[in-house]
Every structure is written in C-alpha cells, then in structure tokens.
Amino acid sequence: MFFVRLLRPPPILPVILRQNTKPFTTMPTAKVISTEPLNDSDAKWIRLKKIHYTDQDGKHRLWECAERTTRKESGIDAVAVLAILRSKTKAFPLSTVIIEQYRPPLDNIVIELPAGLIDAGETAEAAAIRELKEETGYVADTSFEPESSPVIVSDPGMTNANMKLVVVTVLLEDKLETPVPHLDDGEHIVTRVVELDKLDAELKEYGKKGFIVDAKLSHFAAGYEMAKRISTGAFQ
To answer: How far is residue 47's CA from residue 42's CA, in Å, rounded to a whole number?
Structure first.
C-alpha cells in the first residue's frame, strides 16, 4: 500500500506597492523612512494654529490651519516661475522649463515650476529671477519686464501660505542650451525643457507613470490647452 503525503502550499503574502519603487530615469530613489508628530518647539518652517471666528450666522466656530514661519516684510511667502524660452533665430518652438523634485510629504517625485521662498528685502520678481538661475541655470532677460500675478493661494482651507506667479523671458542666441543649475545642499532637481504646445500632454504622461503634477503647473497647462481649443472654434 502506498501513502501519499499532501504538502500545504506556502502562504501567499500580500504585495505592497509604492509609487516610487521604480527610481526615476535620471534621479536616485528617495523615500520616507519614518514619520512622527511635530511639536511647535521643534518646528523650523511651519506651525499649527487654532482660529476662533464667527460665521455669517454669528455662530462661534473653530478652524485649524498651518502657516509658514518664514514670511518676510513683503507679506508674500514664495514665487513660482513661468519661464518662456525663446530663440533669436527661432531654432526651437516657444518652450518653458519644468523641474522634477522629490517631495517628502507625498513620498514621490513632483513635477513643478521652478519656485522658492522670498528672502528678506527681496521683491517677488527678484526672487523669481534668482530661483530660476539657482534651480535651472537659466538667466532671465531683464530687458523684458517680469509679469507678476496678484497674490494667490493654493490650499486656503488648510493654510494661509501665499505666493505670486512671475513670468520671465529667457532669450537664447540660437539653439536650446542646457545650463548648469546652482543647487543648494540637499536639493536634487532634474530640469526639463518642454514645448508649450506639448506641455499638457507631457504632464498627463507623467501622471500615467505614477508621478504627481503640481496644481499650479497643471492649471496653467490646462488653461493653455483650453485657449488653443477655443481659438479653433471649440465650445461654439
């Protein structure tokens, strides 16, 4: 008589997927290794605040928010830079520069416009020119006056952080150049130049690959694409 012993198959363990398991093509992988509550005494850049207010019905209410501790006398926290790249010989189409940067709160690569905080005694326009050179290496042509938006906000339900969008021109002699950025210690940024006519499609491709697109950049690209459609008779 033969006896057959049945072997139990090994258990199937769940697979944990993370958006940033695959390193980006030109950037080493970064990842969050732990998180913990932040006490006000340890906070360098932000703080939490409880707001007491009365609503339109006269009722007393509470609101929780975060605010930056770095706001200077201008009353503006930061700038984002929309750089329009042009060639004197029209060697390439109108383009802009975007950056790829790991953001720990999202544990992912975020696709953004060049941006940064405004220093003491600095205007939004001066900060934009400085940040563009530091993060991308491109130098704004000061013969074209920068165009600044009004003060804008991104997440008014959570924070009073504000900023301006500053549009600058980068005029190149001929073909597209790729200057060297001047990054601070700890900054890891990849620069990409994208044709304005292809920006919306490029950002959608980033999304398909699992990366996150900053809202300001996404809204600009969507508006630019919408303007093109309207100019060709869409929605009529």
So the answer is: 10
